[in-house]
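sorry for the late reply, my laptop died twice this morning and i had to redo everyting from scratch. anyway the thing you sent over, i finally got around to it. pasting the sequence first so we're on the same page, its 126 residues, then the predicted structure underneath. double check i copied it right bc i was rushing
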Amino acid sequence: MRGILTVAWRPRTSVSTPCAVCSDSGLTFLELLSSVIPVLERDGIEGVIGSELPCRDASTHDTGFFLNDHPLEDLLRECDRAQFICHSSRCQAFVPSVEIVRDERGDRCIWAPEMLFRKAILLSLG
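ok and here's the structure:
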């Protein structure tokens, strides 16, 4: 398998890197990447981290992390939705695991279980 994972971000004006945290393990997205990249590289997928993109405007989709040009937030939501498959009842409401919260400085932060971040990384490679 050959491929590349490019991680880039467009920061908001007050924050150097966007906030994304694993809600269950407490790892930041960049900390998680530091453990995932070596595993991907063993499988022939090159990891490129730290590309900073110029900020076009302050809308949600133009700021934050991007994995292979896909917004991390969109990838997380897609993975969250895909794993919520209930075969026992069609009436069960979808309960999202991805949350947008404010960190201690009041900046926007994405919270999701670590497994969703890992799935989002894999989805970006497809």
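Residues 63 and 112 are 18 Å apart (CA to CA).
thats about all i looked at so far, will dig more tmrw
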